[in-house]
TrEMBL record:
Protein's name according to its UniProt entry: Tol-Pal system protein TolB
Gene: tolB
Top-level taxonomic group: Bacteria
Signal peptide residue numbers: none
Assigned protein family: Belongs to the TolB family.
């Protein structure tokens, strides 16, 4: 692996920490109570128990409820479900009640191996039926680059709890997966082919990889335009990392930055994809800058911290990881708006890196380091809660949601 690519890996994937499985920052808000009733007639006790546990976990992570085992049913929400096997599939019926009033009654089906998504979708729909804060991200698939040995990494597709995991790409060094559309049927990734970093697209409908670009030094797709037609790519054809705009329709490559240092991790920001933010060391340390497309003027966005090394965007908001001053090795995640002076710290301790917004902007996933393990962290922004799901095999190198 050449020096530039190694530097890029270190920028996004270093460091370690230890934390509990859940951090609750705001402890004083009284939540409506919900009772979970399992009406399943399922002989597979292991599957029955695991499904129940995922449902309860989903309800907790939604941050809309307090789970209770018993109580006055007339004054509580009731989540009543029945799970059954049908050959190689699972069928699920879910009824949501407020007292004796049925608010929702829906049926679901999936393959047995994808049962976590069955649970996630039913909770997502139930939350919507009750008119509570939505969790539409919950049944989205997450892409993870997982390091499993020296200079080898797999790209896996998982649910947010990491209960479901499927290897999509393996063999060699496969890094930086990035979803290519809202339907989650296409993604981009970087493979290290014969010492040449190469960007591929992968179509999940036909399981086919297609070569997009190759470049000496590095080539990484960091963001996709709203309509899916353009990529922001970090390339270093002459050992100089810069941000490029690649048009997938006409195959045109446009260089957006031209600084004699490191510019990486470009993300579109705003509602019209007319501006980008990215990480640059032009101050002598990694920090976040903003630039309008068609202009070469870069403006500083973040004014605290000496190592702000990764960024993600949603509309006019961005989240970024920042090393805390006078706290060795501590990286926290911050949320801010480019339209105001608003800034908010989302994590409290440890190493929290590589944040990614959910599709609705209400949640953030990130990499959390737990001793010798890495974990997927989920921040429920409005509820001030964070949850962690350790990866039991290998280490998380990068993620996309």
């Amino acid at each position: 692996m050449n020096k530039l690519f190694f530097i890029f890996l270190v920028l996004f994937t270093s460091l370690w920490a230890e934390d509990p499985i859940i951090d609750v920052i705001n402890k004083d808000i009284a939540l409506p109570k919900i009772i979970v009733k399992d009406k399943s007639n399922l002989s597979d006790e292991n599957l029955k128990r695991n499904f129940y546990n995922i449902l309860v976990n989903d309800l907790k992570v939604s941050s809309n409820f307090e789970i209770v085992n018993n109580g006055n049913e007339s004054t509580n929400y009731i989540f009543e479900y029945s799970l059954s096997k049908n050959t190689n599939n699972l069928d699920l019926n879910v009824k949501i009640k407020i007292g004796n009033i049925e608010k929702s009654n829906k049926n679901y089906s999936s393959s047995i191996e994808q049962y976590p998504f069955l649970a996630h979708k039913s909770v997502k729909d139930s939350v919507n039926a009750l008119g509570l804060a939505p969790v539409d991200w919950m049944d989205h698939k997450i892409l993870i680059s997982r390091t499993n040995s020296s200079k080898k990494s797999q790209i896996i597709m998982a649910d947010y709890t990491l209960t479901y995991q499927k290897i999509i790409i393996e063999g060699g060094l496969n890094l930086f997966p990035k979803w290519g559309n809202k339907e989650q049927t296409l993604f981009y990734y970087t493979a290290y082919d014969s010492d040449m970093p190469t960007l591929y697209s992968y179509n999940l409908k036909n399981n086919r990889a297609t070569k997009i670009l190759s470049s000496e030094g590095m080539v990484v797709a960091s963001d996709v335009s709203t309509d899916g037609s353009k990529l922001l790519v970090t390339m270093a054809p002459k050992d100089q990392p810069d941000i490029y705009l690649y048009d997938l329709n006409n195959k045109k490559l446009e260089k957006l930055t031209n600084y004699s240092g490191i510019d990486v991790n470009g993300n579109f920001i705003g509602n019209d994809d007319s501006k980008i933010v990215y990480v640059s060391d032009r101050l002598g340390y990694p920090n976040i800058f903003i630039q309008t497309l068609g202009s070469n003027i870069a403006e500083q966005v973040v004014f605290h911290g000496k190592n702000n090394s990764s960024v993600s965007t949603y509309k006019d908001f961005l989240v970024y990881s920042s090393r805390e001053p006078n706290q060795f090795g501590v990286f926290n995640i911050y949320l801010m708006s480019i339209k105001s002076d608003y800034i908010r710290q989302l994590t409290a301790n440890g190493k929290n890196l590589f944040p990614r917004f959910s599709s609705d902007g209400g949640s953030v996933v990130f990499i959390k380091y737990l001793g010798s393990q890495s974990a997927l962290g989920v921040i429920r922004v409005n509820a001030n809660k964070a949850f962690y799901f350790p990866l039991k095999l290998g280490k998380i190198q990068s993620i996309d949601w």
